[in-house]
């Protein structure tokens, strides 16, 4: 068990080689650079290194809490989780937890190829993806066939934005720190507006995003994309990209320009730029949203659950998370209840602002 910064160059290279051999999309959340940055803002971050024949053959990044309660690295913000293992290496999950001095290990975005932990999942969720592997033109043709009105309307709004506000300009990899601060302010306002917890009010998340914005690695690069109208930013997104996957993470827009649907325009331009960079997949993450339904070409499963060893730590995990998780699941599975819950959250948010 090591702190992420204690991993040697050889171990990091083994990690990357194992990910390269995986059949799963090369999501940047599963790279050593993401774990390293989490370790710099979360002091309980660890990496278990599994050796076989004197060679590093597996890695399990995690965070360790009280009584050995473990959680996937960056749980709550990381959109892809799991162990990185040599394909023929199949340790017993509970033995692995025992070696890590963990009583449990919780995950909420476990990738589908994680055969070691998928049997312990209690819920399956959907992550929405945009496939631009055949180029942006092919994606746009598919959109025209599937949702001709959506694409026509969005492109018309983009042209109207240019006429009424200023020439539309898109930057795929913006390096201006002020643009990142603007995005975070928009996103915080969106969280408050919808009654959700403001992630950027948590210092460690703000620090994590700021550090990742400076991260430049072949398979994990912080990427800030901004849509401008004239000199004004009107929509922005911060995510991570590998050579083949753009993990969509924090999108937001200036509500003053909401009638132009700048967030949708931004995602189309991101898909176009990603395809030009050789990126074949945009992962928009789990959770239903109208814009995801409009933009997606497919869906992938991700899993939520916990691996636990008998003991006090596992019992505490169950008491702390399971009742709330079941309540959320009950509401999600009933559209009328979910709609009522969303309206209630928005109403509560308006009351707090007033």
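Sequence proposed for the structure above (354 residues):
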């Amino acid at each position: 068990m090591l702190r992420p910064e204690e991993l040697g160059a050889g171990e990091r290279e083994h990690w990357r080689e194992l990910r390269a051999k995986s059949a799963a999309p090369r999501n940047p959340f599963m790279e050593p650079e993401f774990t390293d940055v989490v370790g710099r803002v979360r002091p309980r971050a660890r990496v278990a290194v599994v050796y076989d024949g004197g060679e590093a053959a597996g890695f399990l990044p995690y965070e360790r809490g009280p009584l050995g309660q473990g959680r996937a690295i960056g749980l709550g913000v990381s959109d892809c989780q799991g162990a990185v293992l040599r394909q023929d290496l199949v340790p017993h999950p509970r033995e692995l937890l025992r070696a890590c001095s963990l009583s449990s290990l919780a995950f909420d975005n476990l990738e589908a190829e994680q055969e070691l932990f998928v049997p312990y999942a209690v819920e399956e969720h959907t992550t929405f993806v945009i496939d631009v592997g055949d180029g942006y033109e092919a994606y746009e043709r598919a959109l025209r066939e599937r949702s001709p009105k959506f694409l026509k309307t969005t492109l018309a709004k983009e042209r109207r934005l240019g006429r009424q506000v200023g020439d539309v300009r898109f930057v795929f990899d913006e390096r201006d720190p002020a643009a990142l601060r603007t995005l975070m302010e928009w996103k915080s306002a969106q969280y408050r507006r919808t009654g959700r917890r403001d992630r950027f009010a948590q210092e460690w998340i703000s620090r994590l995003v700021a550090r990742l914005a400076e991260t430049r690695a072949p398979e994990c690069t912080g990427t800030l994309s901004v849509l401008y109208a004239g000199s004004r930013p009107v929509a922005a997104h911060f995510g991570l990209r590998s050579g083949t996957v753009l993990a969509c993470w924090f999108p937001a827009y200036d509500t003053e320009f909401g009638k132009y649907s700048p967030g949708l325009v931004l995602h189309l331009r991101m898909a176009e730029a990603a395809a030009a960079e050789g990126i074949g997949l945009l992962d928009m993450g789990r959770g239903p949203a109208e814009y995801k339904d409009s933009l997606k070409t497919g869906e992938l499963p991700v899993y939520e659950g916990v691996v636990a060893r008998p003991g006090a730590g596992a019992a505490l995990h169950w008491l702390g998370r399971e009742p709330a998780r079941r309540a959320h699941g009950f509401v999600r599975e009933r559209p009328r209840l979910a709609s009522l819950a969303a309206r209630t959250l928005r109403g509560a948010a308006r009351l707090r602002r007033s």
